[in-house]
Amino acid sequence: MPSILIADDHPLVRGALRAATASAIDDAQIAEAEDLRSAIAQLEAHEVDLVLLDLHMPDSGGLAGLVALRTQFPGVIVLVVSAQQDTAVIRRALDFGAAGFVPKTASPEDIAAAIRSVLACGSWVPQGLREELRRRHSDPRDLALATKLASLSEQQFRVLGLVAQGRLNKQIADQLGVQLTTVKAHVSAIFDKLNVRNRTQASMLFRDLGTADDPLDSGIDPQT
């Protein structure tokens, strides 16, 4: 039976998604998380097949939350569930690894159909947006950035998030509980993989994962 994690900060939305999930998949194991930190903690502790992810949880930083899950748990399917229906954001979410996109206004039947589709290794976007998404081509810069970010290890992505917060190497080492030399090695590898020269350029790439609604003012908490 599939294991599904619903990550959304609104209890009513989680309840609606739980009901739709239960109707889509018999005997599914369903868990809930109210923020990205607790979602990552559950993914570390339990085997999960699918995450229903809200891009706009307070600590998710827009697309950074999606990239965090795809980087740290590449075998987990991520279906974005969002109130936002901007095709530019949807296109970027798909380019950064989401298997599909479901508006929060979708009917329970559509949510169930989306869950079944992505669990069957397919994809899903609302029918009313499919033609517009086909016309909206992927930004080559996003595809290039997605490839670069995918090359980072789990720890390197965490370090990158802290670099984007303006943390110094010593502060990062203290927060992660590792040696300063280890952080320096991670930062050097991040620069090489992202093809950047300094912390400012690396931070700019990371912050490009935010959306207008989700400025990356806090980043991803590496303690999860």
What labels would you give this structure?
single chain; 224 residues; alpha/beta; Rossmann fold; Arc Repressor Mutant, subunit A; 2 domains; five-stranded parallel sheet; 11 helices; 11% strand
Short structural description:
With 224 residues, the chain is an alpha/beta fold.
Q: Strand order of the main beta sheet, please?
A: 2-1-3-4-5
User: In the residues, how many domains can be counted?
Assistant: 2
Radius of gyration: 17 Å
- What percentage of amino acids are in beta strands? 5-15%
The major sheet is characterized as: 5 strands, parallel
Task: Explain what this protein looks like in three dimensions.
There is one protein chain. With 224 residues, the protein is an alpha/beta fold. The chain folds into two domains: 3-135, Rossmann fold, CATH 3.40.50; 140-207, Orthogonal Bundle (Arc Repressor Mutant, subunit A), CATH 1.10.10. Helices cover 53% and strands 11% of the residues. The protein has helices at 11-24, 36-45, 63-72, 87-95, 108-119, 127-135, 140-150, 154-164, 169-176, 180-194, 199-207, and strands at residues 3-7, 29-33, 50-53, 77-82, 100-103. The protein has a five-stranded parallel sheet, sandwiched between helices. Strand 1 (3-7), helix 1 and strand 2 form a beta-alpha-beta unit. Helix 1 packs across helix 5 and helix 8 (154-164) crosses helix 11 (199-207). The longest helix is centred in the last third of the chain and has 15 residues, at 180-194. The radius of gyration is 17 Å and the shape is globular. It starts with a strand and ends in a 17-residue tail after the last helix. Residues 211-224 have low confidence and may be disordered.
